Predict the structure.
Amino acid sequence: MKRLFLIILLMTFTLFGSAKAYKVHGPQGGLAMEVTLPDGFNEDTDRCPMVILMHGIFSSKNIVPIPALARSLAKEGIASICFDFGGHWKSEGRMENMTVGKEIEDALAMWEYAKSLPYVSKIGLLGHSQGGVVASMTAGILASRGESPDALVLIAPGSVIQDACMGGRFFGAEFNPADPPEYVKCFGIMKLGREYILTTQELDIYGTAKAYTGPVRLIHGSKDTIVPMYCSEKFIETYTQDAELITVEGENHMITRKLKTVVSHAVSFFASQLI
């Protein structure tokens, strides 16, 4: 696991194309973010759809697969927002104060920002790993408010975090799930707070997610040893609408083996739904 975490640290990417830095606030403070527009796009005269991209736990907007998704979406004429959740990397806040609920608030803040952009025609959501949990629940919350996203993609959605918090084992950290300490160290390095553990145990992940009735695609690698396939299968059982699970043979959780395939599935789906 430590080796995997070091790989995550090293695998940072620089976004290409028309990227601009903005600042939106979540419950932990300012959120580092980038908006990527299609090449040659004129914000004053043109209109295009936008996808909000959400990374996983301990990850970043600059770590695979987020940058590749932003580049490929731009080539299809789709703008995107990628951002670091509160407590992650260049955003304000502390990792040990992070919870899924706070990340949902971050995502809702990004939704409001996207809605405020006059050139945005439609909005989709995408989440990887824990970001998939956040994206699914955010979509459900928005749908309950009558503001349903136009499309949703979940890449290896990490609902297994609930099992881990209830079972007292999370990325190498062991704890009493009924009475966890102030924080535990995952990979021996990253701090995960007591509030995260207790609130994750109580999440109604699938119950919240099912309020979203728009089109959904799930993408999951067959060699994912971090988030089991049953997580995506449970989402498929939850959604009753146009929902499909695509299994990418040989792909792992970090999307390092067949990145182009995963990105192609996600981007082609958004192109079919948003353009």
About this structure: The mean pLDDT is 93. The longest helix spans residues 100-116. The chain has one domain: 15-159+205-274. Residues 15-159+205-274 form a domain with the Rossmann fold fold (CATH 3.40.50.1820).
